[in-house]
Design a protein that fits this description.
Layout: H1 49-84, H2 88-91, H3 93-115, H4 123-153, H5 159-183, H6 188-209, H7 220-245, H8 250-269, H9 292-298, H10 301-330, H11 338-360, H12 368-388, H13 392-420, H14 423-450, H15 455-478
């Protein structure tokens, strides 16, 4: 059966004409195209040497960035663990350590900046300028130093702001110094000396804050050892940053110091409220206006004895800092550059200070009085050796002993204040002793620029000053049998040095 035919188309429907196929292009037409075969594509050659170097440098840079980033993060974690260990995070001591790190970094940047201005002058002119430096600022500090402690005590209910003020002042002076160096202004030396006074005031104020933030698991000695180690880290960071920026200009390193001081100012304001609290504290004399001699007589015999010994360490440090800089210009060691000698001695002093900090963290050490006496005797031997044997080895040895004596002697003093002074008197004793030690650093620096630049004479004079400190310590012990204003706490059975 056949299928039915399709229905007829509707009326008016027409079949569409078939689409015309385009004619194949002929040779010579305008739209003639040519597409080469795949086999005829040019084969790219090997990459050039520049391309390879670019790739290697790119991969190396990315790898170095990853390594630096990982190292920075690991270092930050270790630093955080170091500052927060043994309950320091809960008590607020960790914040003070972080503040001190930023402070020392700013001081290091400021020192690097001034090293190319004050000490880059000819020797005679530089000595006169540094003498002006001491006359305008350091000498008044010697007179006003006994007043700084009581003055800061007036702000004990706002001690955070007092610490922040010393840092903000240095930030402002660092910015002014940056302009003074560029313009060669006459405000250079007064401004630099103002920064020094603010730095000494910070040291006194910070010293009074440490006992108020001690956690239960840390002694005063270990807290100060931790602050010193953190300060060494800050010194390396601030010195390295300022050294890199000083290649652009000394004003850039001063602006870096400005930023570091601003960071430290913010950290100071964020310190815990316990810094401002003086609950249970009292002065160790009957009045705030007591003379330094009266305050010395009020100290326990052990504290007074070691305090006199440590004044010798501070005089030696101040003397060596200024005397050696100018001595290298007048009497350099044959065959050695003066800057190299200064760098080696400064490195030895820093190594001695770091060694003293790590020794201070030991659990067992000799008694503080014996340790401080041995350190002063070692300093006398090193100074006598430098007096008669003027060589690089004697100077490096003297720098090493100076750093060790300054740090470990101070920690020995802290140990005695911790053990032999009542809790309610400890903060005042600690702050006042730091003021006295800062004063003796200034005295040593003044002697270092006042005497003629002869090695035998200079090191002989500082040897005599060390012996005077020892004599004063022995005399204080021999004549200190009178009644003391401080009733020392019972000595611990195993009282030791740091």
């Amino acid at each position: 059966m056949k299928p039915p035919p399709p229905p007829p188309p509707p009326p008016g429907w027409r079949r569409a004409a078939p689409a015309e196929e385009p004619d194949a292009p002929q040779w010579g037409d305008e739209n003639w195209g040519y597409e080469p075969d795949a086999e005829t594509q040019p084969i790219p050659g090997p990459p050039g040497r520049a391309y390879k170097v670019t790739q290697v440098v790119g991969r190396g840079s990315r790898g170095a960035a990853r390594v630096v980033g990982a190292g920075t993060r690991a270092g930050a974690r270790r630093y955080q663990q170091f500052t927060s260990a043994h309950g320091a995070d809960a008590s607020g001591l960790a914040k003070l350590i972080q503040l001190h790190t930023a402070n020392v970094a700013g001081d290091a940047a400021l020192t690097v900046s001034l090293a190319g201005t004050v000490f880059a002058l000819p020797s005679d002119e530089a000595r006169s300028q540094v003498a002006l430096f001491l006359a305008l600022t350091m000498a008044p500090f010697v007179i006003l130093a006994p007043l700084i402690g009581p003055l800061l005590d007036r702000f004990r209910h706002g001690r955070r702001w007092a610490i922040g003020t010393t840092l903000a002042t240095r930030a402002f002076l660092a910015w002014v110094l940056a302009s003074a160096i560029v313009d060669d202004s006459g405000w250079l030396y007064p401004t630099a000396l103002g920064a020094l006074v603010a730095s000494k005031s910070y040291a006194v104020t910070r010293a009074a804050a440490v006992p108020r933030l001690l956690p239960d698991g840390i002694t005063l000695v270990k807290a100060n050892s931790r602050l010193t180690i953190a300060g060494l880290l800050g010194m390396m960071v601030g010195g390295g940053l300022a050294g890199a920026l000083s290649r652009i200009g000394p004003d850039w390193s001063l602006r870096a110091a400005f930023v570091l001081y601003i960071v430290a100012t913010v950290l100071a304001i964020r310190l815990p409220a316990a810094v401002d609290s003086d609950r249970g504290e009292s002065d160790f004399t009957e009045g705030d206006a007591a003379s330094p001699a009266r305050r010395l007589r009020a100290l326990p015999l052990s504290v007074r004895y070691v305090l006199w010994l440590v004044t010798g360490a501070r005089m030696l440090s101040g003397f060596l800092t200024l005397f050696l800089v100018f001595l290298m210009r007048e009497h350099p060691i044959p065959g050695l550059d003066g800057s190299l000698v200064l760098g080696l001695v400064a490195g030895a002093a820093g190594s001695g200070s770091a060694l003293g900090s790590f020794i201070g963290n030991r659990k067992r050490n000799p008694p503080p009085e014996a340790l401080a006496t041995a350190l002063l005797a070692l300093a006398v031997v090193a100074a006598v050796t430098a007096t008669f044997v003027y060589s690089i080895w004697s100077l490096v040895a003297l720098g090493l002993v100076t750093g060790l004596f300054s740090q470990l002697g101070k920690l020995s003093l802290d140990a005695l204040i911790q053990s032999d002074v009542q809790d309610q008197l400890r903060g005042r004793v600690f702050a006042w002793s730091e003021t006295l030690l800062q004063t003796f650093w200034v005295i040593g620096g003044a002697v270092g620029i006042a005497i003629p630049l002869r090695p035998g004479l200079g090191f002989g004079v500082i040897t005599g000053l060390l012996l005077l400190a020892l004599g004063a310590a022995l005399r204080s012990r021999a004549t200190g049998q009178g009644r003391s204003a401080i009733l020392p706490t019972p000595r611990r059975a195993s009282r030791q040095a740091p």
